[in-house]
Each structure stands twice: as C-alpha cells, then as structure tokens.
Amino acid sequence: MGTDRTPKLVGTAWGLLVLNTLGSTGAETIVPLPRSLIQMVTMGALVAAFVLALAVNVRLRVRPSAFLFLLTLLLVPSVLSSASLESGFGALFRCARLTLFVGTLWLLSRWWDGGPAFVRHHTRMYFLVLCSVAAGLVVSPGTALPELYGGRLVGALWPLTPPQIGQYAAVITGLAVLLLLGRRTDRRGAALVAGPALVLLALTHTRTATLGLIAGLTVAIGSLVLTSAAARRFFGWAVLCAAVAAVGFGSALQAWFLRGQSQENFTSLTGRAKVWDALLAAPRSTTEYLFGVGLGDKSFGGLPIDNSWLAVYHEQGTTGVALVAAMIVVLGGVALLRPPSLSRACALFLISYCAIASYTEAGLGDASPYLLHLAVAASLLVTPAAVTDRPAPAAATALPAPAVPRRRVPRWARTTEVT
Fold this sequence. Notes:
Blueprint: H1 6-20, H2 35-56, H3 66-73, H4 75-82, H5 89-108, H6 117-139, H7 141-144, H8 162-181, H9 187-204, H10 207-222, H11 229-248, H12 250-258, H13 263-267, H14 272-281, H15 286-291, E1 299-300, E2 303-304, H16 308-337, H17 342-357, H18 369-380, H19 394-397
Antiparallel strand pairs: 1-2
C-alpha cells in the first residue's frame, strides 16, 4: 500500500488494540449489553488489529526492541502455567489473546521512530472513549453516577469502571500537557483534551490515577526544566497553584481523597491488603512458585487482586515478576540515558504512571492498557538513526561524477619566462 495511507492504517490498528483492552466487565449501562457480545467485539477488534497490521507490513519488517523481546519471553511462563488447565480452558484462550496482542505490537514496531505519532494515536483513541463516558453522563446521570459505586463516575454506554476512566483521563491529560510544552499542539487543542479529562477524573474519585498524573508529570517536566523555558514556567505555576489549593481548599481536597471511607478501610486500601495477605500466605508448589497457576481474571478467592505484581506472581510466578520488572527497569534506564527531549519526557511520564498504578491496579502481565502505555513509551525511545523505512537522500544515492580528463600542455608552453 502507499506510504500516504500507512499512517492512517497504523493508527486504526492501534485504536483497535485500545478497544480490545477496554474489558468486558463493569457497571450497568443504559442499554444492557450481554457480556458475550462485548467479548465478541473486543476480541474481534484484536483480530482485526492483527490482520490490519499484517496487511500494512506484508514483508514482516520489525524493529527489534528490548521491551518487545521481554514481553515475548513473558509468553513462556504464561503458556507453561496455563497448559496445566488449573485455571480452566479460559487460561489458554487468554494465552492466545496475549500472543496475538504481542504479535500485533511486533508488526506495528516497524513505524516506531522516536516521534510522537503513537502518542497522538493513543491520545485520540482514549479521548473518544472519554467522549462516550461524557455522553453517557449527559444522557443518564443516574446511571453514570450509581450509588453502587458510591456516586463515582462509570461508563453508561460501555461498561467502564471508575478506575478505568480515571486512568484514561490521567494519561491523556499528562500527554496533552507535554505536547503543549513541546510545541506539538496549541493551547486550544491541549485545553480541549485536558479540560474535560480533568473533570471526568474528578468525578471518578480515583486516587491512584490522580497520584500517577501528578508524579508522572513531575518526573517528565523535571526532565525538561534545564532545557525548556516553557517547562520551567509551567512547573512554577503548577507549584504556586498547588500551594494555593492546599491552603484554600484543603478540607475539600481531603474529603475528595477519602471518599467518605473510614480510617480502617482507608489504611487497608479498600480491603486490598486482606486479599494480598491471603494470596501470599497460600501454599504453592515449586512449579506454581516459578510459573504461576495460569492466566486468569486477576482475582484470588473470588476477590480482585488489584496489584500488578501480585497478579503476575499468582498467574505467571516469580519468572513473570522478573520479566515485568525487567521491562520497567529497561525502559526507565533507556529513558534516563536519552538527552532531554519531548519524546523522552512523554516516555518518562508513561513509565512513571504505570509504575505507580501497578501498586493498586492489575494488568502489567496481560493484554491491557498498561502494556499499551509502555509500548508507546518504547516507541518514543527508539533512536531516529535506527529508522530504515525512510528513503535514502538523493546525495547518498547519486553516482560519483566521472573524473575530468587532464588536458595535455605542449612542452614549449610550460615555461613561465618570455624571451
């Protein structure tokens, strides 16, 4: 296909990957959607993304990446543990899904060039998801703010939970701010994305996403402070606004942060600590300790684990934990070694956000938005010199000019004296 259509098709494939990771469980919607229908749509999106990526990359040209190599290695403990069928046939289905997911990332890696192209694909798709959330809030406020979730915002058109919406809102807000500081978008465009996203984030009352946004932007903008005047100005204004908000709205911020929870419930991380303690205390065989029990629904004893590291430990064992930790360390190390730039700042934001969110959210060991965030970070850390798909400049392909033959001068004309 022509190169003019390739970026659009790559963006479409990336959007289908985002659709696949939206999940099939969540709050009740205005129009009840059967879970089987949602799973058919999400799994169909993944198959379509793979086929589309294969269509635009028929020659199977890929860009080697330590992140993709480690992610591919993660398939080994996933398959070994799922083959025992301890978690049921669903584990093998999830392995096939993860394999297709990783394969699609490999095919799309051909267009990883260190530029912000995938940042734009990422932001646009999640902005469309948040638009659907806002539309559901307008159409049916009661369904979008149910008492079952304590009045927190959920997806009324597509079943999305408050943590999911908070994650999407925080990520695109941070990326929009960084694109503005890097002069890749104007103030109007950044405000159009970040403004509504911050409102939705506030309505979700998601503490993890809020802390991840603040910490991620602090790290990312800190990497630009020495080289960008815009980053220095933004950092100064942000600190001033935070100080004013802490003094003038301290009680309101505290109430928002606590969400009406008791001190005991807050210190136990909304009951997560009890599930974590039970998971770590459960007896395991040597095989389960090394490779886990197989890919599942990220739960233990019928309760969600809500911790990426413990979920990986439960399903893919210590081998999976080591591989996921290596992915974070490698991406972070490469980002720190890069010179200050917009690509490096966006990568640091995504890596920092995923590292912080991993404490109370699961997903680093399976096809999820968090792996997509890290994939975008990996695409930003590719050195431009590694790009092989660009045409060679004319000066490099032109043949050398033939040598001009030397003109013979008679002997009598070689003297410089006149007699």
